[in-house]
Design a protein that fits this description.
There is one protein chain. This protein is of the alpha+beta class and 258 residues long. The chain has twelve helices and seven strands. A hairpin with a 5-residue loop joins β2 (35-39) and β3 (45-49). α1 runs antiparallel to α2 and α5 (118-142) packs across α10 (215-224). The chain is elongated and about 80 Å long.
């Protein structure tokens, strides 16, 4: 039986050959008749005509290998195991279970084993890839406050951090805050909840914001939305008292800015 997930990897020296093969197939799929041939050790040529659909599939694989040197082939089965989900997401199995338990990755039990839909895994992967990309780019610029401040907007920062649009910061923050839930809040909603400490029906979202978003992004979100550090810290303490959840790294950052 074929594996649910197959990892294909080539040497970096072969990526150019994969690119040439993809370019060749780019032309082949437009022909009425196309195929492949191989030459055996004894010089005999074996040829096989292939339909355009197969040639397109081969071209896609070669294109991916040319770009990254690696590709994952996933069967179209609707459900896969937690182990396979971990391989697709590029994280450990315990972290996959954590995302399941938090509601970010829906699952069902088959006996004692968890099974997840491929579509749900790929949706989560797109969200986390986008979040990782922005977080990595922002990490260097926003991770080191340069001095105390009374408002989020008064701390100095490298100019490269200012190059990021507020919409990028909001998307990154809200991607984490809203991910576990069907009902989503906007940046305006989140700012209002933080500054008023009136949670209403948003306590779960606010707790996720304070405990799962990276501290430097919380501070950057507050700075861009003119939330004073005192209000941010007070809101965090209220959330901690109401839910029992905490974020020691954020507490340390708030203490430095107090």
């Amino acid at each position: 039986m074929a594996e649910d997930l197959t990892r294909l990897k080539i040497e970096s020296s072969d990526q150019d050959k994969a690119r040439k093969g993809a370019n060749l197939l780019e032309h082949a799929v437009t022909l009425e008749h196309g195929g492949v041939f191989v030459t055996q050790a004894d010089g005999q040529i074996l040829a096989s005509e292939l339909p355009p659909s197969l040639l397109r599939a081969m071209r896609s694989i070669l294109t991916a290998l040319a770009e990254t040197g690696e590709v994952l082939l996933l069967r179209s089965d609707p459900e896969i195991s937690a182990e396979k989900a971990a391989e697709i997401l590029g994280i450990s199995r315990p972290l996959v279970y954590q995302r399941m338990d938090s509601g970010k990755l829906p699952f069902r039990l088959v006996g004692r084993h968890r099974r997840v839909l491929v579509n749900d895994v790929m949706t989560l992967k797109r969200i986390e890839d986008r979040r990782r990309g922005l977080a990595d780019a922002l990490g260097v610029d926003t991770d080191k406050p340069t001095g105390p401040a009374t408002k989020a907007g008064t701390s100095s920062e490298p100019s490269s951090s200012r190059a990021f649009r507020s919409s990028d910061i909001d998307q990154l923050v809200l991607g984490t805050t809203n991910a576990p839930y069907r009902r989503t809040m906007s940046s305006t909603d989140l700012v209002a909840r933080i500054t008023s400490r009136d949670w209403q029906n948003w306590i779960a979202h606010v707790a996720t914001f304070f405990t799962e978003v990276r501290p430097e992004l919380i501070l950057e979100f507050a700075r861009r939305h003119d939330i004073p550090i005192q209000d941010l810290a007070g809101s965090y303490r209220s959330m901690k008292s109401a839910t029992g959840e905490s974020n020691p790294a954020l507490e340390n950052a708030l203490e430095r800015l107090a």
